[in-house]
Amino acid sequence: MKPFIAALLSAVALLFAIQTHAQIVYTDVTPDVTTTGTYNLDLDNNGSTDFVIKHTTSTANGGQHCSGSQTNQFLKISPSNGNSVADNTAGYPTNASVYSSIDATTAGWSNTNGQVLRTVTWSCQPVPFGGNNYAWWNATTGAFGGSDGLVTLKLVSSSSTYYGWVRIANNGSSFTVKDYAYNSAASQPILAGQVSENYVTVGTVVSVCCAGGNLSVPFVIHGTFNASNVVTVELSDANGSFTNPVVIGSTVAGVSGSIAATVPAQTAVGNYYRVRVTTTSPARVSYANETNLAVVNLQPSGTIVAYGSTNLCDGNVQLSAPNTYGYTYQWKLNGSNIANANGSSYTATAVGNYTCQISTACASIASNAVAVTSTASVPAITCGLTSVCSGNSTYIVNSSAYTNSFQWKLNGAVIPGATDIGYSTFSAGNYTCVRTNACGSATSNGVSISVNPNPAAAINTTYTSPVCSGTVALNANTGAGLIYQWQAGDTYNYGYYNDIAGATNASYSATTSGTYRVVETNSAGCTATAWTTPSLIEIGLNAYISAYTTTICQGSSNLIELDAIVTSNSPLIFQWYRGGTAISGATNAAYATNNPGSYTVAVTRTTDGCAKTSAAVSLVKVHCRMSEDDDAVNTQLSVYPNPVTNAATISFSVSSAQRVSANVFDVDGRRVATLADGMFDAGDNTLAWDATEVVAGVYFLQVQSAEKILTQKIIISR
């Protein structure tokens, strides 16, 4: 090393600790220099900059698609004065492997300025398969991202060539220079990361070891070490860090060898441990071994089980031990190893006691024993329900292994096709099962099944047609031990029936229109149901008017639909009234209007002349003022094409999931078509209307939701 270096370093106040060992000149940057700007590397410490390492940034704007901006990061190195950096095949500086040789044969030497150590650039790009969605994406180049990396360097000075390296760490927004070295002997090689001609390396260690177990750590001495040199093995933490290393073994040696280390029993389980060695004469610290070391604490489980029968009469016996990564197995019969039986499971074919020696890298134990026999036995069959109602089934099952064959019998006779391990039946009788296996055939115990009759449920009534008043007598059949429950059809859920409170006698008097049935239960708990004929019993008439709203906005052409609700299967006649005066032509079940007033509907059943007038519903006209919020959730309505020839598409939107009805009325308020009446999702919706059956003329489309009622004039033209 040049004699003026120490004075020069002092003058520029650099805190570098420099160690010179024969040809290798090593500089430990103390403390490490972290910067977001520029670092001028003086590899041979002669006061001149040999390489410039520079970090820069730029801004990537999201434009109209991505919000905000991102920061692009650039880390580059530029050689000075004819110096060079070794590049990889991709054209970026090589991140050299520890102790790889740096010399004239190193490939890719380049003296180009601005060689990329690492870049991270951002752009706003469409999301794949995401429609019109965009997102920020980043692209990276260069081999120096994250942890320590070694840059391979070639220095040209006074027509001589020297080889060296610098260690840097890059976290994206800044980079850190930690140390560097070069071989002061011209044209002579140096190893990446080498700090002296006398150094020590770690050999190959196993990939898995046990907490509390032994670990052989080979080491290689390079150069000259004293015979009294102490070589110590250190274990990192679970993340590979040597901030607080643990000593796990040592030896005295001046030459290469191996250390029998012991991993402490309390070492936490982990997959990213490393080891390194240190020496005392001279004092050296090796790099960590190249691959991760997993520390495990595998204490094997010694339980084995048999799947199914352990009787060879039922077939081969399947034995299984815990199938766990890192386990090894040796199956044994009566204490002797079974050849080639080294899997987690074993198929036993001989009588005896089976065990398994289960081992890991940390321990080995003998399992429990499973006795395998070969003994003929009588099969057992069971049934959870031996008494059933007519029309119901029960299931009988054989307790034998599936590997047997079976034949079921009823009252001693073979049941054709009944050869499964279980049998489902609707019939009464005594059931047995013949099981056949390697030990022969045997007949099971018998199971007797009884089948109880269901009640003969029926309803008798004199009702044949609707009645205008009174009651209708419904009479169920009678019999010893029968229990009754009369039910009425649910008004809102078609096909569902509800119990009528207190209606538990054989007879029931119906007082209102509806559907009725009786459920009969006999002493065996069997049930049967009977319905009235006809299904709907009509007593009187109950008519009322249903409307979404009774408010008409001043100046609006929206129509309010009034619906007559009547429970009847008979022909009906309708007449709508406004203020007690019949409305001409308003004789349908529904009437639409925007004329305020008091409305009733008179309903007449044609079969018996029974009539009913509904309660009045009043429509009132008010001055409506929509708020800004109303406009925000306004239902939009359009018809295309309009005029309509044969078909049209109706488009509308709602702000939330809700019920929507869409009806078409003629100029007299008569409904001519119902396009929809149900739930619709929030957002845009469409309906298709086939208008081929509607005569040409002027019509009104009314779309009614919980938000509002909108009307659109439609012209049908042929």
Task: Write a brief caption for the model.
With 718 residues, this protein is an all-beta fold. The protein is 2% helix and 52% strand.
Computed structural class: mainly beta
Number of strands: 64
Helix content: under 10%
Distance between the termini: 105 Å
Tell me the overall shape: flat
Radius of gyration: 47 Å
Describe what this molecule looks like in 3D.
With 718 residues, the protein is an all-beta fold. It folds into 7 domains: 187 residues, no CATH class; 98 residues, Macroglobulin (MG2) domain (Immunoglobulin-like, Sandwich), CATH 2.60.40; 68 residues, Sandwich (Immunoglobulin-like), CATH 2.60.40.10; 72 residues, Immunoglobulin-like; 72 residues, Sandwich (Immunoglobulin-like), CATH 2.60.40; 80 residues, Sandwich (Immunoglobulin-like), CATH 2.60.40.10; 89 residues, Sandwich (Immunoglobulin-like), CATH 2.60.40.1930. 2% of the residues lie in helices and 52% in strands. The chain has 2 helices and 64 strands. The chain has a 7-stranded antiparallel β-sheet, with no helix packed on it. Strand 22 and strand 23 form a beta hairpin. The N terminus is likely disordered.
Salient structural properties:
718 residues, mainly beta, Immunoglobulin-like, 7 domains, seven-stranded antiparallel β-sheet, six-stranded mixed β-sheet, 64 strands, disordered N terminus
